[in-house]
Write a structure and sequence with these properties.
There is one protein chain. Helices cover 56% and strands 15% of the residues. It starts with 15 loop residues before the first helix and ends with a helix. It is α+β, with helices and mostly antiparallel strands. Strand 3 (137-146) and strand 4 form a beta hairpin. Helix 4 packs parallel to helix 5 (225-275) and helix 7 (326-335) packs across helix 9 (362-379). It has eleven helices and eleven strands. It is rod-shaped. It folds into three domains: 23-164, PAS domain (Beta-Lactamase); 225-311, Signal transduction histidine kinase, dimerisation/phosphotransfer (DHp) domain (Helix Hairpins); 320-482, Histidine kinase-like ATPase, C-terminal domain (Heat Shock Protein 90, 2-Layer Sandwich). Strands 6-8-9-11-10 form a five-stranded mixed beta sheet. Strands 1-4-3-2 form a four-stranded antiparallel beta sheet, with helices on both faces. It has a two-stranded antiparallel sheet with strand order 5-7.
Length: 489
Amino acid sequence: MVRAGKNKRERTGKSLSLILWFAFSLFALLVVVVFVLVQNALVVRQYRESTLDMLEEAGEAMSEEIAALGSSSTRLERRLINIANDYGLTVTLFYQNGQPIFNLTDQSDYSAFAEFLREMRDSGAMSSFYVSEQEGALVLAQAVTVDTQPAFLCLSASMQGYLDLESGLRWMSVITALVAVVLAFVVSAFVANFITRPVTEVTTRAQELARGNYDIAFRKDYFCAEIRELSDALDHARSEIAKADTMQKELIANVSHDFKTPLTMIKAYASMIREISGENKQKRDAHAKVIIDECDRLTMLVSDLLDLSKLRAGVDGEEKRSVFNLSEEVCAVAERFSYLSETEGYVIETDVEDELYTEANKERIAQVFYNLIGNAVNYTGEDKRVRVRLYRKGENARFEVIDSGKGIPADELDTIWDRYYRSGASHKRPVSGTGLGLSIVKNILLRYDCPFGVISEPGKGSCFWAEFPPPGEPDGEERRGMRRSKEEA
């Protein structure tokens, strides 16, 4: 005996909640890292550009003062120092041989730097000014003329403020990243759980459904439209499976009864022939006829079951399609019921329009007519009247079978075509059948994509109808594809 625990399927793969949590956390971490890197890069660039603009602005102001005052004026020295102090810079003014013009810094020898600047100027690499970064400072040098002598003006801005800012931003970025990652882990865990909870709940209920619990109901109030649609689809599947399971059990019971009864009679009458009527020809023939009739009934039941199985599976052998006269076929099928008029008093009225054609399997369509007329005969009222009509409706030919029976309750109209359905209404059955006729009709008409249905009210009888397209019309998948194309257009 298999233990109940083994019925539970083992989970394979990663949990959706874990995947979402990891994805959200990784995304948050990447956002923080990118933000920090971009922020630092922008700060460096902005600080350098701002400092360079300040150096250029201060350099232009000093160049104007040098051109206006010259080196002999002590006023020039004060002006240069004042400008440098205003911008927070260090200023140096020296001739091209490296000799300082004013002793504005502690350094007294600029010969090496002057030689480098001369080479840059002579080679044309120093168009108007030269910028370099030296020992944590941004240096701007430009050529000037002091009292007709070539000289160089050098301005230096300390980068220590930027270095301090960069260090502070680095620590702030690290702290911000840690806090953001922790928050991302926590928030993503809640979000992932919130998103996956409906999926987990639907999965659990679906597993219960798979174990045969058809009483379970799927919720319809989920926040996500896709989950609601999935829940609706599973709930519909549950109701259909439950209905099919119930009908299957009824079918087994009905078919078992239909098989058991004729088999019992065959056995009983065979025993009677052997023990009682073996020497009496009249009784023997009567008993043998009963056996033959019951064998025919079993053959009919098996044949209908096989036809239904083939139609449902779509393996009905080679399709024999042809153009044939519907009017003649309806009349021929209706004529097969004429013996009921003579023996049972039934009235089969026919109202058939001439020269109506379709293209299909002639034998299958004849089976549709026979099953529908036979069903009407079995369920018609006390007047034993059945009306058969065939007429043109638009481009199609419409076939109708109308009886005067008790009608069909509204809640059963959608189930009478099911292959396991059997009406609870009492009726006489002058036409032998198996109870599978309407299901066979449904599957044949669906195969040819023919519209069909039933119109019925309790106490007023029923009208079963079907429509057949004229020859040359696209059928089946072609018509459905054309309809889809028109809808998309």
